[in-house]
C-alpha cells in the first residue's frame, strides 16, 4: 500500500512547464525532521535516476545536473507536501516520476536508501 501519492503528471510539449506533487496517502503519515524527500524518474528501458531532493529540517535542496536551472523542488511543511516545478521541459525529461522518503539526509542521492515510495506519475514531453 503506497503511503505517498504523486499527482500532476501529463502530456506537454517541449519548452512547456509542469508541476507535480507528492503528498501522503493518509493523514497519519509523518515526515520527520531528519527525513529527506526525493524525486526520481524512470524512462522506458532505462534505470531509475535521481532528479531532486529536499531535506525536511533545513530545506536544503539538491538537483541532478540534467535538471539544474530548470527544475525547482519545494516543500510545504504544514501540508506534508513536496512539489517539483519543471520548466523548459525537454523530451528527455519523459518518464515516470516517483516521490520517496529517506530517513538519512546524507544519502539524498541514493535511491536504495529511500524506504517509502509512491506509485509514480507519468510525465511525457513531446518534441
Q: Quaternary state, please?
A: single chain
Note poorly predicted spans: none
Helix content: under 10%
The largest sheet, given as strand count, sense and whether it forms a barrel, is: 7 strands, mixed
- The value of Rg in angstroms is 13 Å
Task: Please report which band the strand proportion falls in: under 5%, 5-15%, 15-25%, 25-35%, 35-45% or over 45%.
Answer: over 45%
Mean pLDDT: 95
Key attributes of the depicted protein:
mainly beta, globular, 11 strands, 7-stranded mixed sheet, 0% helix, 47% strand, 127 residues, 4-stranded antiparallel sheet
Word description of this protein:
The structure is a single chain. The protein has 127 residues and is mostly beta strands. The protein contains no helices and 11 strands. Strand 4 and strand 5 form a beta hairpin. The model has no long low-confidence stretch (mean pLDDT 95).
